[in-house]
Write a structure and sequence with these properties.
Diaminopimelate Epimerase, Chain A, domain 1, binds manganese (II) ion, 5-stranded parallel sheet, 335 residues, 43% helix, alpha/beta, 2 domains, 12 strands
Amino acid sequence: MLEAEPLKVLKVPASSSIGIICHRHADVDAYSAALGLAELLQKLNGKLRIRIFAPDGLGLLAKKVQAAVFEEVFEKFEPSGESRFYVVDTGHASLLKDALDHLKASKAEVVFIDHHPPSDSTKEIALARIIDETASSTSEIVHMLFKEASVIPTQKTSLALLAGILYDSQNLKLAKVHTLESVVELCRLGADLQQAREMLWMQREQSEVIARLKGSQRLKIHRVGEWMLAATIIGSFQASVARGLVELGADIAFAVGEHEEETRCCLRATQHFYKKTGLHLGTSIATKVAEANNGAGGGHPTAASLTVNIPQEKLFNILVSEISKELNAKAEQMN
Ligand SMILES: [Mn+2]
C-alpha cells in the first residue's frame, strides 16, 4: 500500500523544523531509517532543522550502529515548534510513548514511513503514510526514497541502511530480489558488508541466556493438528525466548511474561508454517488478541508481539485457544 506519493511527502517548507521519531527502544532498522531520512531531507533542503527522537533510547545493536555513524538522537521527546514529524518503522501508535499525546494535540503534520501492516491507530494521526509491506525493512524504503529523489547517500548512511536491511531481513533470509538489489547498490556506495555483519553480531548477555534456558524448562508443548506449538512463561527476553523455541524445532512458539504491570507476549513461527497455514501472527493473532483485551499488538507474519493488562496465565490460555481456532484443530497438550 502506498497512500502517498513519495516525492511529495519529502517536500517541506525551507527553514522549518522537522522531527523524526523512531518506535520506542529503537532497533537497528528504526535508527538507521531515521538517520537516512534525516540526511535525505537535509540534502533536499539545506535550511531544515532536523532532530531524531528515540523514545526510551536505542537498543543495544542500534547503539553499535550509532557508534559507527555518530548520529545523535534525543531520548526524551521535547518538541520545539516542529511543523512536521516523520515516524519511521512504527506499526502501532502506542509504540510512540509520550510523543503520541503531542502528535494528537498539535497541528504538526505527521507522516508515517513503514513496512509493518498498516494499523488504524496510525491512520488517525497521519497526514500521509508510505507503507510498503513488501520491503524487508524501513531502511530499504528509505533507500528507495533516496533513489526516487535522485540523491546519493553518504558512505556512512549507506552502511547504516545496509545494517538496517540485514537486521530486519534476518541476514537476508527474508530478502526479496529488490532487497538484494538494494544491498548491492549500498555496497557500491561504499557500505562494507562484512562491517555491517560484525556490527550486528553480539555475544548474548548471560541474563538472556538464562531466560532462554528457563523458558525452555517451563515449556508447554501442544500438538495442534499437524503443528507443534511451544509456549512458555518468562519475565524477560520474550522475543529471544520465542525465537529460541522455534530454533529448537517448534513450528510456532510464544513467550508470555509480566513486566511493570503489563503482560507482554512475543510470538514466532517458521516461514514454512506461515506458507502452509497462511496464519499471520501480526494481524490474525497479536492485533486481534490485543484489541479484544484493551491492549496493543501487531507485527509480521512470523514475528509479532502484544501488550495487554491481564494476568499472564490468562493470556497464555487465550493464545493457545486462539491459535487452535485459527488452525482449525484441537490443541492437545503433550507434557
Ligand atoms: Mn523494521
